[in-house]
Design goal:
heterodimer; A: mainly alpha; Four Helix Bundle (Hemerythrin (Met), subunit A); 0% strand; elongated; B: mainly alpha; flat; Cyt_c_oxidase_su4_prok (chain B); cell membrane (chain B); transmembrane helix (chain B); Caa3_sub_IV (chain B); membrane (chain B)
């Protein structure tokens, strides 16, 4: 409209951030519920869960953990970079985050396709011959890592959108709440993986 | 006032140290679980995961530097989850 529209721009940084946190809490409760389902079934079928967990590749799991932890650091650093008014570094750090997320998904692709080629997927003939506990383990494995992977894809889209805003100077050193929020979302994805990794890959 | 809130800039170095700590805990948990310590394996792995998530929440997610209000809310959610897990297992262990 007019030039002074910029001066009394309506903005509520605190509110935006609080909203993001409340959303994150709902996500934590969603995954928390799934973790409870997992632990109860593990408690009821200890032998089958032990057998099934041996099938998972700890190396891929560890590699993906390292990838996600590094990507969490880069997105956190991008917030410092924007505060130091270093636009280029902000964009580089966000780009690295997205690249690492893609690397995570590539790993996940190989992991899942490996399992599927061995005939392990929900409803497969091989799995139907296995015990009830193994069916539950792989059902939960696909559901929980799949839901987590969906969050990775959404996180990448969110970060890419904020990157565009940084390029257009709509996110700057004094106005970066949306960057903080995309960072919070990304850390949530990391947080969930921190628990998924030991539960599925480490504890056998 | 609002500006004051946002002027806290976390140093890059802090993040690097946190990442090193997180990676260290990851490799420790991989090593511990490969040792086969029986029932302690699960508790050790979950304890390390808990420490890692605390670091992510406090430093990466800025709960340590933001208003206390956010940290209190986050703690309540984890407390709620803890209670639900506790009650669920009271049921399954003693039914």
């Amino acid at each position: 409209m007019s030039n002074h529209a910029h001066i009394d721009e309506h903005r509520d940084d605190e509110g935006a951030k609080t909203g993001m946190w409340i959303f994150i809490f709902t996500e934590l409760i969603l995954f928390g519920g799934l973790f409870i389902v997992y632990s109860v079934y593990r408690y009821l079928n200890p032998a089958a869960f032990h057998l099934a967990a041996e099938e998972l590749d700890t190396f891929i799991g560890t590699a993906n953990t390292v990838i996600l932890l590094i990507s969490s650091m880069t997105i956190a650093m991008s917030i410092s970079a924007i505060q130091y008014q270093n636009k280029k570094l902000t964009l580089i750090l966000m780009g690295v985050t997205i690249l690492l997320a893609v690397a995570f998904m590539v790993n996940k692709y190989f992991e899942w396709s490996g399992k599927i080629s061995h005939g392990i997927y929900p409803g497969s003939p091989t799995l139907m011959e296995a015990s009830q506990g193994e069916i539950l383990f792989f059902g939960l494995y696909y559901a929980m890592t799949g839901l987590h992977a969906l969050h990775i894809i959404i996180g990448v889209a969110f970060i890419a959108y904020v990157m565009r805003l940084v390029v257009k100077d709509e996110v700057q050193h004094d106005n970066f709440t949306i960057l903080e929020n995309s960072g919070l979302y990304w850390h949530l994805v990391d947080l969930i993986w921190i628990f998924l990794f030991p539960l599925f890959y480490l504890i056998t | 006032m609002e500006k004051e809130q946002h002027t806290h800039i976390v140093k890059y170095k802090t993040y690097v140290f946190v990442l090193i700590a997180l990676l260290f805990m990851t490799f420790t948990s991989v090593a511990i679980t490969s040792l086969n310590l029986g029932p302690y394996t699960v508790s050790a792995a979950l304890l390390l995961a808990g420490c890692k998530s605390l670091l992510v929440l406090l430093i990466f997610m800025h709960l340590k530097f933001d208003k206390k209000f956010y940290a209190i809310m986050a703690a309540s959610v984890f407390l709620l989850l803890g209670c639900v897990i506790f009650i669920t297992f009271l049921d399954y262990l003693y039914r």
